Amino acid sequence: MPPGSTALALADPSPSPAAAPSAGASAPTPGSSAPPGAMVLLRTPQRTHRAVAGTVERGKAEPPDARDPFRIASDTTTTAALIMLLAQDGKLRLSDPVSKDGADVPNGANITVADLLRMRSGRYNHTDAPELAAALDADPGKAYTPREVLDITFRRPPNFAPDADHESRSSSGRT
Q1: What pLDDT is attached to residue 5?
Q2: In this structure, which long-range contacts are made by residues 90-96, counting pairs with CB atoms below 8 Å and at least 24 apart in sequence?
């Protein structure tokens, strides 16, 4: 693990072994900053699902396991970083309304890219939708399109006016 990376060791209490590496998995190119392997562990009331790809270390054949240390990261942070790069390159402005590229966003003319990044859009969070939780429990392998996720959000009224508050996640127990 690179110096300065944050790691957390997970103990996997389930007795079943990790799934075999995905047949379609490809190794990163030498010298790339991509991790050599990844593991996703999803537990639902019905079952535990595992997906494994790659190896724990470049040049080794050992697949990742839930007990291995891993770097804590966020896809939200990555998305925000990409948006900031687009702004730096002049491809968008943080003050742009989301309706500029998403005409169907309710109240999108009053929600800016910056509001989204600062979690101040006011839009309902799809992860709080009880029907999504039930659907994930029933079929954890179902892939959702961006449109399906947006539809869950857009069916609900906003939690607050744009830039009037901050989505703290306290309503669902997450922070």
Answers
A1: 30
A2: none
